[in-house]
Amino acid sequence: MDPMRGDVVVKGRSCEDDRCEKRGSKVWFCVDCDSGFCEGCWALQAQHKPGKVARDGYSHEKAHYGMLKVYQDILQPPVKSGKLRQLHDDDSDTLWFGVTKDDSGVPRFEDHGRYASLMANSPSTFGTNSAKYPQLVSFVGVTNAEYTVTELYPRLLYTFSDVIVFVLRNAKTFQSAVLTKLLQWGAAGLEKSLNQPTLPHAVIVLNATEMGIEQEEWDPKTATAGLLRSLSTALDRIGGVPELQDLANKWRSERHTEIRTVGDLIKRYYASFTVVRIPAKGRYTLMDKQVNSLLQVIDANCRESLETKRRARMLSNTDDWNVYLQAGFDHFTRNLDAPFNFIEVSLKNNPLPENFGDHIRQLATAILARYPDPQKTSGQWIFENLSSMVASCILLDCVQYRKGTAEDLFERYEYYLETALEEFCDLYWPCSYENRRGRCVTAAVRHNPKGHQNASGRIIGPGEYQSDFSADTYIDQWLDSVKFQLLALQTSLQERDDSTSKTFTAIDHVLDIHRHQMSSFYRVLGGARYFISHTTCFSCLKEVPEHGLPCGHVLCSACVRAYGKKDNDCYVVLESCPLHSVPKFQEPWRVAYKPDYAGVRLLSLDGGGVRGIVELETLRAIEMALGARCRLPIRAFFDLIVGTSTGGIVALAVGVKQWSIEECINVFMDLCQKAFTEREFAGIWGLEQAATLNHGSKWKTKPLHQALADCLGRDKLFGGTRDQNPGYPVKVAVTSTSGTGRRPLVIANYSRAERDSEPYRFLRRAHPDLELGLCEAAAATSAAPGYFKAYYHGPTTQEFLDGALYYNNPVQVAHREARLIWPDLAESHPDLLLSIGTGMNQSALKTELREQPRHLPNPLPVAQTVEDLKQANEATNSRLKAWVLPKHRRVLKTFKALCQRFDSILNAELAWQDFGRTVQKSDWPNIEPLPFIRLNPDLKEEPPALDAKDELVYLQTKVKKALHSASMRVEIQRVAFQLIASTFYVSRVVPLRVVEGTNALGCKGKVCCRFEDGSMELRELGRFMQFQQHTTAQGSFQPYFVVTEERCEGYVQKTTITPEVIEGMITHATFSIDLLEFEISNSMANTNVALGLHSTIPDLGHKEYPLSGFPRCLKTAEDFRRRMIAQSRRFEQ
């Protein structure tokens, strides 16, 4: 029935006056009459006549019935125990964080998942698809609480809140109950943080205000002024409040700040002060109006706070804000009295530098960190020393990559010099104010909220930021100093060019000059050993460092090539670190490079817990297919391995630890038994659920972390001092997720530059001590919510969740990372991208895939471009709502869904299908065989759960059987042959030339092998080739190289790998074959150079497999490489 029809009377929705003829019109509800009336009938009621009043002495109030019910349900909770229990359960779901104690009694921050849930449900700060910048509004009531509330929370909430709302019921108790607490909170927190970007705003809510006040008092401005007037005597010597007098006297005597009124005192601790009155129940329209006034005040305060943080360059997104809060908690639980420094945390979590100016600033802040005492180290001294280093870097860049003299080109660098100085002064250089209580340590952009603070956090005086050293006063001197040094270096370079033989080039001279400048620069600063960065190459200040050296320094590729000696196409050898020429390395340090024109081989490993044994057995099968009688390790055939969760652990074991597959299997079997350690009461229904509820995870987390540490060790994944060269320098990355679940992460043993609008964050820390160790990276990628607690990394106060939240199948990550690591391949296909799953029941999976659109959500989107990322954002947010693991009642409700998500083989297969659609959109040439292969053995039954450790041996047996099926044997052999072919590449000997009188292109190149001369791998590859030679009734077969041209019949050229060549590989571990010299008819045609191999498997037989980097258009590849070389060292404009 329609409740608005005239013949139906519905309470609150239609007029209840029997005389009314317009029951469909707007209805007002009267609380005192307990009836609803339309506008016309309202005035007809006797109790609504002029002069009539309600029980509180005021006229009857018009109210919207729906709004009224909302407030009544809040203010009049149900009396039934079941309903009350439900409300309490709902309240427990809102718990954000709390304090517990560990086994040793130390307070520990415990996140109950509410923050992540809020972030998943909240809109972006600046519009759709933009970043979120959370703001904290804290509501505080009058309580007699313990240490946590009286000591710890005031410091935390005061330090991190944008608005603090103090709620009290009786305005008459404001002075004694709230004002004192308000200021004590401020006093407890004010001096317990440094470089805090803004003070919190204070709002007082006078709850249940009686109606007898003047009408103007409902306005927040009037209420604020009135309340402050009522406190006019609080600071009087006679009759004042002692606690407030003490605070005021402290500001007057110690901080030399004039305090005349309570309002002056409040403004010392809070950015603003506002009073909002809320009426007692019964006046619901007025209550709604005042609640909206409160929301408007909070919103205005939050906006002002956000803008203040923006000006201070301290805006924190969803994940960064959580890191700051965790760091604050850790800090205050260790020491309540020492101040929390925002800059220290920001330095730990800075993104990678973007340009020359950022890199200069990085070195300047490193000098400041080495010499932090401003009384001994002046800003001018830092930049005077920097000027020689920066000038040398500019000269190096000009000679290597520019046309013209450094003097003529200097203007191009001035912008970066200016921004480096400005940002250093604004963000890092402390104030110079000083008195007998100490020296101010606050930076310029974060100085205003509190005035002058010393290193202990104490306010030592009022006033603005002061410094004799600033960008405005020093910029001209800085530019002149750099230019003067640059001209002197340029003169020295010219003198060397004029006085030495032509066998030495300008680049040789400038490198030698730069090396001497670096040595002198770092010697003045106490030695290069104190200056190590993982985000800036401290040799050239122009690139992100990529290659770790034995001394711990990390250099960019350009500096390694410049100061090293090319050993072959794959390696550059360094005798010493250019930052300190002596001592030399004990053994020459060899840095691996991808040969020019060669492609890359990528391996992607799914997550799946104990099902990681499927991936290991699949890798073992491929290794056997490389030759059962050959000792060719699978790790030698991949350039990049990316894994998620258990796949990440396998990637670290194979690629970083460089274990054999056999050793990996043995360690993995033992790891699974130790990692999945049951909690108390396991198997006892009810008690098991209670234990899970209490701990927040099904399995104990410490045994997992200990097992990972025992098997993988604690060596840093990236950087750190090294004793010996890795045998196979494989790049390895594992996926993870931020503790809030909002941001996917990639953790790697390599470095690269960041790009705008990345679908995930590439995690790299500036300071070596903040990098994750091997076992820590493994814990970060495998912290599956529901199964294990989030992994907490103490040095950075960052939490990590399992990478499967976004990339259970990380094939998209592998593909994207390869293009970023090797930009010359950005427009090319990989030699091979092999994705390995953790087993499936193929028949059941096909059914699921057919039915998936009708009853399953789409897989988590994995973005490749900015547009993809925008389209994916909404779907991602909705899924995160279900994935966030709360501490209380929702644990049991969501646990099954969480487990299904992390245990989902379907999602991994859907991710592969999505990747296939991405590949189909490309304009790559048709390739046979395809370079994209997915191996996921069909177990003929449902694979076990990811934590089914008791089924591990049975699963191993099943996967071995599955891998021996005819179809899998074909796929595995094909992969093995493609890997063999990818070890060969063609090195260009002479430039491409157009054949005179034709459109043909003349080519000459040499087939080379990635395996080094003298290596065991080259000998074993020779044995593989030896086994390829055979004679049958159908004839003999000898492996060969062949050149073909797109759309042309037959071979352009064929070169046999002779028995003599193969014997040389086995006996002498050398590979040498005649040059390839051929012509192609169309310079824009795709050319393929392939290796012919033979298989005893009938479905394969005799096939040809592309060499590394083929097929490709030779001219396009050459032109693209020239563009990359020309652009690789340009500064970002």
Fold topology:
Elements: E1 27-30, E2 35-38, H1 39-42, E3 62-63, H2 65-75, H3 81-93, E4 97-101, E5 107-111, H4 114-121, E6 137-141, H5 147-160, E7 163-168, H6 174-190, E8 193-194, E9 201-209, H7 220-230, H8 242-254, H9 262-269, E10 273-279, H10 284-311, H11 318-334, E11 340-341, H12 342-348, H13 356-370, H14 379-401, H15 406-409, H16 411-427, E12 434-435, E13 438-439, E14 452-453, E15 459-461, H17 471-499, H18 506-524, E16 547-548, E17 554-555, H19 557-563, E18 565-566, E19 571-574, E20 589-592, E21 601-605, H20 612-625, E22 640-644, H21 646-656, H22 661-675, H23 687-695, H24 702-712, E23 731-738, E24 744-748, E25 761-763, H25 774-781, E26 791-793, E27 798-802, H26 804-807, H27 811-821, E28 832-836, H28 842-855, H29 866-883, H30 890-902, H31 905-920, E29 932-935, H32 952-963, H33 966-982, E30 984-988, E31 993-994, E32 1001-1009, H34 1016-1028, E33 1030-1032, E34 1035-1037, E35 1040-1045, E36 1053-1056, H35 1059-1068, E37 1076-1080, E38 1086-1094, E39 1102-1106, E40 1112-1113, H36 1114-1127
Parallel strand pairs: 6-7, 7-9, 8-11, 9-10, 21-22, 21-28, 22-23, 24-25, 28-29
Antiparallel strand pairs: 1-2, 1-3, 4-5, 12-13, 14-15, 16-17, 18-19, 19-20, 23-24, 23-27, 26-27, 30-32, 31-32, 32-37, 33-34, 35-36, 35-38, 38-39, 38-40
